[in-house]
UniProtKB/TrEMBL annotation:
Taxonomic lineage of the native organism: Bacteria, Pseudomonadati, Myxococcota, Myxococcia, Myxococcales
Gene3D superfamilies: Metal-dependent hydrolases
Organism: Myxococcus fulvus
Highest rank taxon of the organism: Bacteria
Domain Polymerase/histidinol phosphatase N-terminal: from-to ranges: 53-114
Protein name per Swiss-Prot or TrEMBL: Polymerase/histidinol phosphatase N-terminal domain-containing protein
Amino acid sequence: MSRLRVAFGKGLRALVGLLLLLLGLCGFFALPASYTTYPVVPPKEGEPRWIRGAFHVHTTRSDGRGSPLDVVLAAKAAGLDFVLLTDHNDFTPPAPTWGEGVLLIPGVEISTSSGHLVAFGMERPLEGMTRWMPAADAVKAVEAAGGMTVLAHPVQKKNPWTDEPTAREAKGFELYSADTFFRHAMRNPVSRLLPAVGAYLANPMHGVMVLVAPEPEPGARFMELSQEQPKRSFCAHDAHGLPSYESVFSSLAMYLPPEQLPAPLPKDAKEAAALVTRALRGGSALCSFRALGEPEGFALEGVDPEQREARVGDVLKVRLPGLPDVDTVRVQVWGEGRLGEDGTSVELTGEGLVRVEVWAKGPGRFFGSEWRPWIVPNPVRVLPRTPGI
């Protein structure tokens, strides 16, 4: 018995020591987080306000930690105009409604045999829906109801999208996902999770931004699937309430430029929801990691904002928003484009697809800084040069 007590005592001391070590490490990262400031890029006065909202949010109707009212209050506190609710397999969601000045728009995340599919904008009820139904049947059912299909966290280690034909048929793709960032941190507890937890204790928004560590696989898969027909890109909150809804909503959002959807939204919830979902399906909707700065004033000049098409040899011009510092903002280009020496022009070099993003240097995990995506517009399809030109 005495040996058992000794062993138990040693185990308890080891556990306490480990907990104290973890708390110490969290405190190590919490200290610099308390001094971080956002936004990185200050806003420019006089720019028209863009409609902004959260895409892919879960409540207690499935596996979220908060009720729809909790989500509404968090969205209001974060300055959002709408929230697209996508509870798992919620095939009869409530109608659009206003709450505390925030528009709640119904959608659903469907668990198929090949992965998860976000659907929204349905004009008619979904019919014949069941959990783990074949992916092709789910895509057809959403399209038959007039909705849009978006591949949810398609290359995530947990629940990736595995069916190739429907991967090409789906109209949208979650290029960045807060949930995927969180799961990536879980696989890297020392280098990613602990810094994020420590930062979150002192500054919840910074804790979320520390999680933002893009990997190459989603972008490469997105470009591959968009060659035949460019997909719409989305930044997904995939919010479940941990981290808090407000901290995630304050860190990133989907934005609808005023030329596509001017503020304010109509008072009729059904009419407003129809306008928002139509805009999200359009080409000029974009994502911004708004903790780094608001995107009002951004433009990708030289391309039709809705069709998202240009031609080989064209030069696109990135108009940066706010009051950026040249040392903290840069333009990133993938695909058939080449960044000019001025750092804001993109020459289209071949037929296919070009993806242009603006990145900003935000506060790092400790002192210092890290490059992170800031503004993520939809890709541009590059057509052959016009004959004779």
